Amino acid sequence: MGLYPYKNSELKRISSILLLSFFVLAIGCKNHKNKIAPSFYYWKSEFSISKAETEYLKQLGCTKLYVRFFDVDLEDEKRFPVPVSVLQSGDIRNTGLQIVPVIFITNRVFSNANDSSVKNLATKVALKIKAICEKGNISPIHEIQIDCDWSLKTRESFFDFLKELRSAFLPAKIVLSATIRLHQVKFAKKTGIPPVDRGMLMYYNMGDVKSHKTGNSILDFEKAERYVNFIDKYPLPLDIALPLYSWGVLFRRGQVIDLVNNLDIKSIAKDNLFKISRDNLYRCDSDHYFLGQYFYKNDILRIEETKYKDLTKAAKQLSRHLPHHDFTLAFYHLDSTIIQKYSNENLIHIINLLD
Questions:
Q1: What residues does each domain of the chain span?
Q2: 265/16 Cα distance (integer angstroms)
Q3: Which has more confidence, 78 or 56?
Q4: For 222-249, how does the pLDDT look when each residue is reduced to its tens digit (9 = 90+)?
Q5: Which CATH class is domain 31-245+306-354?
Q6: pLDDT at 270 over 90
Q7: Is the pLDDT assigned to residue 9 strictly greater than 60?
């Protein structure tokens, strides 16, 4: 029969079937890949997006914006929860973006909470969200996100708050999400799973910002490696948040006293009164104002940046442990000075690394 027992016509038919099978398999594999929806956080007290920022979002394919509506903290004197830094809504309706209200609540708000105060807080937060939406003509709302780094002590009260908040928006079908830290992913059984629909994994602020041994608390890849293996096992659908910001950690007499936002090494280089001490540490030579902040002689600034190469490394580290579902990739945060450091091509490459 020879080496090939099939006729030419049969060989062509078999080849066609194999080729079609390969094509279907390839399409099937492609369809099983995660779909990533790029997005941004907006973390300013007054809503105003420039034309350049709008175009930046458009080119990146962003359709959603996580907007901080207000913070909740304890009032110093009366010690009850009050709204802080409430959003002054500009013309949000014309952005063409889906707006997700984000409420940041300090952990101490829940430290001494009881059933009555938790229910009251949820009611007030819901009313405040609705008032801001009405004033800014923001409609419809599909998702609300709560940002709180709860502890074992406050877990029960915080989770009860989330349940009450959901009830306050019924019968509307609104997705309720909560921010999740890496330690809450690894120790999920201990810290608990919040009663929400989705979690936003904050893949930043990993290191101890107060420690003198910390090099960069924003992205600490060695520390992150201890947690990433648990990401795809977390019982909630997870979205991912990556940092774009930089800051200066201000030490005075050995203690951290402030974080100076949007500070990087280029900014420091323009001020001749800061001299490099070692690595990313800079010592102040004399008392003076700089970028609206007063510095004293011998103050130390640790400059912590998120460079493009750091984002690339973070994406590669994450790519091995992605959740097995479509997710939002949110960059923190939208600001004209920040996005100048990252081209659309830069961020598209980061997205592709996670695709």
A1: 31-245+306-354, 246-304
A2: 60
A3: 56
A4: 999 999 999 999 999 999 999 999 999 9
A5: alpha beta
A6: no
A7: no
- Choose the weakest-confidence range: 11-20, 61-70, 191-200, 210-219: 11-20
pTM: 0.89
